[in-house]
User: What shape does this take?
Amino acid sequence: MRTYLTYIRTTLKLVMRDRVVLFFNYLLPLLFFVVFAQSFGASRGGALSQVIAMVLILGVLGSGFFGAGMRAVVEREQNILRRFKVAPITPLPILVSSLVTGLISYLPGAALILGIATLYYGMPWPERWISLFVLLSLGVLAFRSIGLIIGAVANSMQESQIIIQLLYLPMLFLSGATFPVSSMPKWLQIAAQFLPTPYLYTGLQGILVRGEDLAANAKSLVAMLVTVAVATFLGVRLFRWEKEEKLGRGAKLSLAAVLLPFLILGVMQSRSEENLSKSLLLMRDMRRNRPVLIRGPRILIGDGKVIEAGGVLLRNGRIVKVYASVPAEDPAVETLEASGKTLLPGFQDVRVQLLLPGGVRQNWDGFEPVDWTLRGLAAYLYSGVTAVRSVSDAQSVLVTARTRIEHGEKSGADLIITGRLFTTKGGRGTEFLRFLPENSRGLVERDTFFYPTNPEEARAQVAQLAGAAQFLHIAGALDPAIVRAIVEEARKQGIRVSMAVTDVASARVGVEAGIHLLEGMDAAVLSDDLLAEMAKRGVAYSPMLALLDPNTLQTLDASLVQQVALEGLVASTKQTLSGKFKASGDFAAAQETLRRAHRAGVPLVTGTGSGNGVLIHGPAVHREMQLWAAAGLPKPDILSAATLRAADVLGRGKLTGRIAEGFEGTLLLLDGNPLEQLNNTERISAVFLKGERINRASLFEKD
Assistant: This one.
């Protein structure tokens, strides 16, 4: 042990006296950090974690390949190692001292970068700073051990430079630290997973951005540890004291052996794509975390209150401050000038059917349910609808689509899943099955419907949904005892219940049992005493006028519909249904029921039934609100129904639906004032989802 400590101490003294080492370990990383931080807007709350990760990885690569690999060749070629050959020392202490001194000389520079980021740029000190330094330490040791193998197998200085550049540049540019992984072709993204740097990068970002611990990066840490062990073992066997000693070409295969843990990890990742998903998720979180000041807009709080000219500050995906007057410009924050515009919470649609096309699709070739669902959710987000509840859709399809959005692979509206529809065989709610392509019809029916025949069976079916769905829906005219059993069990399981009106009597059973939402559809006019009971119990009502509108076919010409519709869908729908389409139900009766419900104080919410009829996914909420205005409802109440009230009925009222401190930064910026002209809701200037400004133009881009 004394030999090791003595050699480490001596080597460390030599290293710290070397001005070149000091320059590359401290001054150069600091210079890179300041330059890139300023360039990337870190002083205004930009992607500071990205800059930190990039500079730290540059340091790790430099320490490993140049500090260890090239230095080993230099010391051999300058006959420095020859002097130790006659001393009582073996190769192992020399290799260990290189690893340890590299680590000791690197960590202060990393701490300096983090300190400046905290003190000057306002970044909080990493919550998991111990995990961060453990990951960095293993990274330094792993890359220095790779560098030592390069030094061992290279027969000359020139050869070592070639090998280093062949490894250094791909590892740097494919790490994700310099260019986003998501911007690369898919094959290159997969190829990058066979290199060690992407794991170091996602590990650093995971700790900095998401506060991950070491357990979240266990596979990467194990691979680094194995690399250090294998490299140290091979380094001893391949160690050369003098430049005259030559190794065969086969010795260079040792590099492959050292990288084998990451080759194995790459094979695993090519199947699971776990690290790729993590990279996308981190990129999304970084976009959401950067602070943005929306300055000067008219602010519709969501509950009817209005700030004529104010501001909203977003940070870490949430609203951190609402200004009652126009705030001063802040050079430390990205500012979006919004004078003359209107800011309000994102709209929410409490009833859509994502697997239906909302029109006539002539060709179902290549139809893939998950991709179709994702495109629909993108269309809603494009249209300013930031959350939807899907009804009558296959649960497995919805879960897969939502997971891909949550993992950052796709962007789309938040999805609330209705687990199953409770109806009778061939009863209401099952009629849409005939519109689905044959290859998905059976899956949708098995995954969408329950047909309870008694209360006990109904309770058991509800229990199956626990933890998997936020809602269930009663579609058919079921026995009152079964309805009560469904609602009671749902309350126990924490699941909300919606119900379609089939007749006044069944609606009354549902209201008295404790449902959360009653959907009007084409039902009979609800009685005044039932509306009073709904108001008393807080049961929300969705009239779904857009689905009953006799002029719905004309809405296909609307600009927003044209922008989001699948290519050819509008034309094929017009061609097929022109002169033939007729909405079902009594539109005038539905309007009257809406007016009476409003007068009775029933909580009103916007649901459209998009996917049915000719309601193309995305913009129908705007049409729904316009029809409410035509029925005589006040505009502030209509906007509250599409934001605050809808969020409440969906169980999201403590997160979104209003502009208040602590709520999600899920907002809609409009060109114009919807309190003057309600169709101004279609003049969308910007959409924010959890603090991230959505690039609407890219929502429909294919992979």
In short: The first helix runs from residue 2 to 17.
